[in-house]
Automatic annotation (TrEMBL):
The lineage of its organism: Bacteria, Bacillati, Bacillota, Bacilli, Bacillales. InterPro entries: AAA+_ATPase, ATPase_AAA-3, CbbQ/NirQ/NorQ/GpvN, ChlI/MoxR_AAA_lid, P-loop_NTPase. The keyword ATP-binding applies. Keywords: ATP-binding, Nucleotide-binding. Pfam families: AAA_3 (PF07726), AAA_lid_2 (PF17863). It comes from the Bacteria. This is MoxR-like ATPase. GO terms for molecular function: ATP binding; ATP hydrolysis activity.
Length: 324
């Protein structure tokens, strides 16, 4: 499993240039950068669960700057209101009418920092934005600008004053993964880069938003063989039937896994999805979408172990099944 998750092969020239630009700020996290770009290309969102100070904010800021995209940050706190996220209509006495003031969610790239520190009511304000790409305020639905990408973070260590994300919200995130600590050599490189000036301040765009939107359209045209679709369904169905699982992955998970596979094939300059794409992306796509039963929790079984078993047991499409 670890070997598959360490796979990192990018051949698309524009994506390669984008990754190289982001790596000027984020050292030694190519896999995580690639996963984030796969999410953006497939129209999905990312949940980062990691300790403070490992570069979560820097990564999403570097992505935004590299794309020349509008970036907004939402610092989730217990007293945050839904209108603080989506926006609010305020009466303007000069013109004698209500005027809408957009909230920070109305940007191309949004950092939802420590999303589990706010109430479920405020968390729910993001649901429509994550799934539909729109927000509804005062009975009016407003479309969000495209591209639209949310990277949410949560701290896995501090649970005091937090509200666990409900399953419905977790299901809206394409991927969940961690950045992790850098190696000693990577941390030394970080110190050298920020010694005089932080590289984020001088980062320049290398890809226009129109180009990104065009790429998103091309990702949708990446071919998915019928046998690959069946492979996805077998994996997702196996999570529902596993003896340690209380709640398996939803049909939305199948769609997410297929779209992520299309995006991975695209950045590797392929116009078709292969089984290895699905097998590589399945842990990032499914771990946060399944709930273990009480017996599994008592035996210290993890979702990682369950998915490892599932991927080992589910039959991979044979070569003749993939023939186009």
């Amino acid at each position: 499993m670890k070997r598959r998750q360490e796979r990192s092969v990018t051949e698309h020239p524009q994506i390669e240039a984008l990754i190289h630009n982001i790596e000027k700020v984020v050292v030694g996290k190519r896999k995580e950068i690639e996963l984030s770009l796969i999410a953006i290309l497939s129209g999905g969102h990312v949940l980062l669960e990691d300790v403070p100070g490992v570069g979560k904010t820097m990564m999403v800021r570097a992505i935004a700057k590299s794309l020349g995209a509008q970036f907004k940050r939402i610092q989730f706190t217990p007293d945050l209101l839904p209108s603080d996220v989506t926006g609010v209509s305020i009466y303007n006495q000069k013109v004698q009418e209500f005027q809408f003031r957009p909230g920070p969610v109305m940007a191309n790239i949004v950092l939802a920092d420590e999303i589990n520190r706010t109430s479920p009511k405020t968390q729910a304000a993001l649901l429509e934005a994550l799934e539909e790409g729109s927000v509804t305020t005062d009975g009016e639905t407003r479309e969000l600008e495209k591209p639209f990408f949310v990277m949410a973070t949560q701290n896995p260590i501090e649970y005091g004053g937090t509200y666990p994300l409900p399953e419905a919200q977790l299901d809206r995130f394409l991927f969940k993964f961690r950045i992790g600590y850098p190696t000693k050599s990577e941390e030394l490189e970080v110190l050298s880069r920020v010694e005089n000036e932080h590289p984020i301040e001088t980062l320049r765009p290398v890809l226009e938003l129109d180009e990104l939107l065009h790429m998103q359209k091309k990702v949708k045209s990446v071919y998915v063989q019928e046998s690959i679709k069946e492979y996805i369904i077998r994996i997702v169905s196996a999570t529902r039937q596993h003896h340690a699982v209380y709640l398996g992955a939803s049909p939305r998970a199948s769609i997410s896994l297929m779209k992520a596979g299309q995006a991975l094939a695209f950045i590797q300059n392929r116009d078709y999805v292969i089984p290895d794409d699905i097998k590589y992306l399945a842990p990032f796509t499914l771990q946060h979408r399944i709930m273990l039963n009480s017996d599994a929790k008592l035996s210290e079984t993890t979702t990682e172990k369950v998915l490892r078993e599932v991927l080992e047991q589910v039959r991979i499409p044979a070569g003749n099944e993939q023939a186009q």
